[in-house]
Amino acid sequence: MEHLVLEATVRKGMGKGAARQARRNGNVPGILYGRGEATLAIEVDAKQFERMLHHGLAKHGMLDLDLKGDGTERRTVLIREIQHHPVTGDVLHADFYHIEMEQKIVVSIPVVLVGQAAGVKKGGILEHVSREIEIECVAKKMPENVKVDVTSLDIGGSLHVRDVVLGEDIRVLTDPDRTVASVLLPKMKEEVAPAAEAVAAEEIAEPEVVGKREKEKEEAEEESEQEEK
Q: What confidence score (pLDDT) does residue 198 get?
């Protein structure tokens, strides 16, 4: 299986100053580490990396880092963490985990819904609840995603993680009772409108009742004054 290739360069420093310098040079600072390996400070081209992330090509899959400055030309990695700027959304830092293809890994893969649910044809709304599931498998057998067929899903029905079918060598770690997708009835505005109209009618009627009571009170007081005279 071919992987995306991302160019990377070994950084000289690990501190904030070196990271800021990398960003000024149009790169994203990061670290590269692996099982039993020393952590290595690296930087990758910001535009190339963000383009991969924007198209969903790198977040859940494996990459090959074309590493320069460490004597090893290429290393297969998983992205373990990405830090974004809270305002601009730009990538500030990334962690890459070096893996061997025979190594067991734990990773989250996207859930892709396929087909048109039977309940949607009847006016229901398909809700995609869980968009990722966590699995454990050998790196070389890691799927890019898992496809879930929702064709038979009717209104009120749900599919759960336990319904997801994967290879025998793949172990699902996500709670089997977690909902993946369901079809719900749309909320009807017509059910809310009569109640709102009733409340409005009561609000309009109330001042009329109060006004009537005040008038009756005034008439009673006038009658009482006349009797006293």
A: 56
Residue-wise pLDDT for 82-118, tens only, equals: 999 999 988 999 999 999 999 999 999 999 999 999 9
What DSSP string runs through 184-208? EPPPPHHHHHHHHHHHHHHHHHHHH
Residue 50, helix vs strand vs coil: helix
Element holding 16 (H helix, E strand): helix 16-24
Cα three-residue angle 47-132-166, rounded to 5 degrees: 115
Residue where the block lists tokens 């966590």: 134
Block residue for tokens 């172990």: 171
- Sign of the CA dihedral with 115 first, then 119, 123, and 127 last: negative
Q: Are 48 and 54 in contact (CB under 8 A)?
A: no
Q: Which residues contact 186 (CB under 8 A, 6 or more apart)?
A: 123, 124, 125
Strand partners for 98 = 34, 77
Q: Do strands 27-34 and 40-45 pair parallel, antiparallel, or not at all (unpaired)?
A: antiparallel
